[in-house]
């Protein structure tokens, strides 16, 4: 069997490290071609020494220089690139088979698109890239023949519950609805009046999953589920009305597909991202992921409830953006990124995340996405508007 050569973009993050854990279990199948990281240079260096990639990608020229010197002094042959051009180079490199897109936020857009345009097998964690550029992204997949596999646990579950020929259209294969499960995050039962006082530490303390800080806050606000709703519409060619969000606090069912004959298929497992990552890496085969077998007796029960949009206004805002189409999703995503960063820096309160996004979406009508520039321009305008809101809230 020939070894799959893999570029892991965002290797120092939560998804990146889980991916490298799986890869290291199967050296006969997978070989690390490139690793990238932004701020944790010492971690990136340690990963390079362990996985011996051909390339590493650092944030900028000066960190690349430092990393290169330190690696060379230790006898490493890894060549260090930097910046967005470095990321795009290792994403589209002729020697690469598979790209794991695990950078967080809009920062991953160009490199994820570069992998798609080069026709790679692309394991998508960076949902923000697809949410922002939707139609352009899927057109690029169609044109290049890239194999796009979701590693977001819900979308990976849906993919596993759909028949192999689902791209004919959901109605053609008898799908009535997609049921997207959500844990409800740490504030599912917090009294509403206390939400204005919750801290970044509380928001990042997810009950079931251990994740990066941005997605942890998104899970607490349920914007993560909103972004995932948009992600599901693009991945599976679904209308927003065909995707229903179900709160399932145990995070054991990762999502379900409801068929017209009354059958509902679900994918279950322990909440550990190594399961969807292994599934996508080996697809259509199955490999050991290191995840323990699910103990249903220990789980005991599975609960379900409808989401409360008063508690989680971000979910409503995302659904509205999905229905509007065009640049609305890019604006939603950009406003959310700015607001979440401001919340993490204690500049705004938790409920202000939703009110800032609402303000930004109301400031400008959505327009058609014709090219990447329209997406990037909408992203910039939304960021500027959201930053004004953050600054005003600081003056208040
Ligand atoms: P994280 O914060 O742990 O890691 C992010 C990675 O991206 C790091 O390697 C960081 O160095 C890199 N990065 C950040 N900003 C960058 C920039 N401006 N330029 C280049 N690189 C940059 O995040 P994570 O939890 O691993 O999430 C990564 C992506 O996967 C997100 O899009 C998230 O929504 C998605 N995702 C994560 C999980 C999870 O369990 N963590 C589950 C599903 C989907
Ligand atoms: Mg998810």
Descriptive labels:
binds magnesium ion; Rossmann fold; 396 residues; isomerase activity; globular; binds nicotinamide-adenine-dinucleotide; DXP_reductoisomerase; isomerase; alpha/beta
Structure description:
The chain is globular. The strands form 2 sheets. It has a 7-stranded parallel beta sheet with strand order 4-3-2-1-5-6-7, sandwiched between helices. A 4-stranded mixed beta sheet has the order 9-8-10-11, covered by helices on one side. The protein contains 16 helices and 11 strands. With 396 residues, the chain is of the alpha/beta class. It has a domain of 147 residues: NAD(P)-binding Rossmann-like Domain (Rossmann fold). Helix 6 links the parallel strand 6 and strand 7. Bound molecules: nicotinamide-adenine-dinucleotide (NAD) and magnesium ion (MG). The site of magnesium ion (MG) has 4 residues, from helix 7.
Radius of gyration (CA) equals: 21 Å
Helix content: 40-55%
Strand content: 5-15%
By CATH reckoning, the class of the domain at 4-150 would read Alpha Beta
GO molecular function: 1-deoxy-D-xylulose-5-phosphate reductoisomerase activity; isomerase activity; manganese ion binding; NADPH binding
Protein name: 1-deoxy-D-xylulose 5-phosphate reductoisomerase
Binding site for NADPH: 12-15, 126, 128, 212
Binding site for 1-deoxy-D-xylulose 5-phosphate: 127, 153-154, 183, 206, 219, 224-225, 228
């Amino acid at each position: 069997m020939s070894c799959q050569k893999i570029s892991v973009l965002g290797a120092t993050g939560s998804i990146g490290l889980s991916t490298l854990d799986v890869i290291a279990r199967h050296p006969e199948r997978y070989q690390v071609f490139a690793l990238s990281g932004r701020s944790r240079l010492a971690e990136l260096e340690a990963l390079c020494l362990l996985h011996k990639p051909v390339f590493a990608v650092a944030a900028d020229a000066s960190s690349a220089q430092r990393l290169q010197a330190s690696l060379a002094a230790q006898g490493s042959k890894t060549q260090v690139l930097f910046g967005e051009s470095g990321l795009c180079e290792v994403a589209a490199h002729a020697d690469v088979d598979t790209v794991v897109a695990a950078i967080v936020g809009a920062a991953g857009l160009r490199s994820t698109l570069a992998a798609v345009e080069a026709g790679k097998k692309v394991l998508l964690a960076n949902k923000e890239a697809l949410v922002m550029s939707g139609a352009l992204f899927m057109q690029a997949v169609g044109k290049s023949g890239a194999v796009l596999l979701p590693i977001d646990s819900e979308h990976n579950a849906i993919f596993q519950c759909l028949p192999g020929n689902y791209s004919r259209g959901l109605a053609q294969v008898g799908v009535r609805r997609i049921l997207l499960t959500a844990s409800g995050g740490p504030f599912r039962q917090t009294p509403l009046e206390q939400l204005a006082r919750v801290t970044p530490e509380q928001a990042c303390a997810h009950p079931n999953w251990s994740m990066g800080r941005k997605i942890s806050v998104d899970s607490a606000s349920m914007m993560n589920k909103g972004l995932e709703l948009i992600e599901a519409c693009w991945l599976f060619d679904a209308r927003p009305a065909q995707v229903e969000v179900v709160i399932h606090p145990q995070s054991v069912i990762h999502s379900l597909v409801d068929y017209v004959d009354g059958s509902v298929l679900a994918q279950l497992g322990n909440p550990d991202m190594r399961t969807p990552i292994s599934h996508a890496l080996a697809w259509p085969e199955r490999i050991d992921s290191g995840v323990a077998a699910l103990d249903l007796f220990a789980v005991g029960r599975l609960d379900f409830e409808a989401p409360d949009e008063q508690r989680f206004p971000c979910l409503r805002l995302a659904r509205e953006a999905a229905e509007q189409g065009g640049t609305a999703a890019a604006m939603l995503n950009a406003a959310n990124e700015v607001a979440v960063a401001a919340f993490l820096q204690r500049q705004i309160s938790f409920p202000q995340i939703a009110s800032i996004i609402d303000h930004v979406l109301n400031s400008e009508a959505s327009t058609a996405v014709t090219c990447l520039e329209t997406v990037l321009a909408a992203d910039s305008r939304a960021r500027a508007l959201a930053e004004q809101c953050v600054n005003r809230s600081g003056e208040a």
